[in-house]
Specification:
alpha+beta, five-stranded mixed β-sheet, globular
């Protein structure tokens, strides 16, 4: 099959690769770039484990062709923060014990970043509705909701960090 050249910015780094035109973004991220935090869960767009930010909006990367993401910015969970400076959503998950097995966690975190970008002060109901596209089989979502509420409070306490994270999902300490 013929290949096509694409240029995509992922976690603030720009990559140009020759790919098959029908390659899914999730496979590009995992196989071409080695960013395995974006998980492949169901292959039917039901579970949300593959969620990434595409130009700041949450998308399921198993439903996006890599060529559709050309010349756009993608943020994966690896791009949210660093060990030294966690993104507020990562910090919230750490402090509120928002994960169990961790398989869905990258998709949940990215979904939460997208939710907080659209609604910086969500209610518990709005958080639960915002997470409808992500399936966690281990938790009852209570600590996940608490983690997102903690992130919202952290953003509220530090508006500059909130603005940086809202733009791309990446904090100043992100890679």
């Amino acid at each position: 099959m013929e290949k096509t050249s694409v240029t995509i910015t992922v976690n603030n780094d720009t990559y140009t690769r020759d790919i098959e035109p029908r390659q899914l973004l999730v496979h590009f991220l995992r196989d071409s770039l080695g960013l395995t935090g974006t998980h492949i869960g169901c292959d039917t767009s039901q579970c949300g484990a593959c969620t990434v930010l595409l130009d700041g909006d949450s998308v399921k990367s198993c439903t996006v062709l890599t060529v559709q993401a050309a010349d756009q910015e993608v943020t994966t969970v690896e791009g949210l923060g660093t060990i030294e400076e966690l993104h507020p959503v990562q910090q919230g998950f750490w402090e509120q014990h928002g994960l169990q097995c961790g398989f869905c966690t990258p998709g949940v975190m990215i979904t939460a970043v997208g939710l907080l970008k659209q609604n910086p002060r969500p209610t518990e109901t709005e958080i639960r509705e915002g997470l409808e596209g992500v399936i966690c089989r281990c938790t009852g979502y209570q600590n996940i909701v608490h983690a997102i509420q903690a992130a919202a409070l952290q953003f509220e306490a530090n508006p500059a960090q909130s603005q940086a994270a809202a733009t791309t999902g990446v904090t100043e300490g992100g890679e």
